[in-house]
Design a protein that fits this description.
five-stranded antiparallel beta sheet, 4 helices, elongated, 29% helix, alpha+beta
């Protein structure tokens, strides 16, 4: 049984020593809602701080690599692929999709969720001077494949 509690009830990292190495992949999303003029400025590359999408993409990738440093009891993983996609949406928002992959003994859900979250926070940080009313929402796991838990695909919102 996998648990974060030891025999005395203390929190600890799950022991995955005996788990098989398998291909694992997770996709997470986040959405940042903003004023239409803010989205237009970002999409057209007119932000005075530079390319918001490029900076958010790099921040998300770096965050996925540092997940074990941010989330207690999370295993440090050797990720083989991290992709962060950002796209303007017709509802005055930016949709962020983060995909993480590895061949390992534990999943990559937390890495994908961390990447999407940090990319969203980076957009907020870069744009807060022009739009403090932005809302970060819908941070969630969309899909997970591999490992003992098998395949998970979230229902449409």
């Amino acid at each position: 049984m996998l648990t974060h509690l030891d025999s005395q009830g203390h929190a600890n990292m799950v022991d995955v020593t005996d788990k098989a190495v398998t291909s694992r992949e997770a996709v997470a999303q986040a959405r940042v809602r903003m004023r239409p003029q803010t989205l237009k400025m970002i999409a057209e590359g007119g932000h005075p701080k530079g390319d918001v999408f490029a900076v958010a993409r790099i921040a998300g990738i770096q965050a996925a690599k540092k997940t074990a440093d941010l989330i207690p009891l999370c295993h440090p993983l050797m990720l083989t692929s991290i992709k962060v996609e950002l796209q303007p949406s017709g509802d005055d928002s930016v949709l962020i999709l983060a995909r993480c992959k590895l061949a390992g003994q534990t999943g990559v859900e937390m890495e994908a969720l961390t990447a999407a979250s940090v990319a969203a926070l980076t957009i907020y940080d870069m744009c807060k001077a022009v739009d403090r009313g932005m809302v970060i929402e819908t941070v969630r796991l969309l899909e997970k494949q591999g490992g003992k838990g098998g395949h998970f695909k979230a229902d449409a919102p």
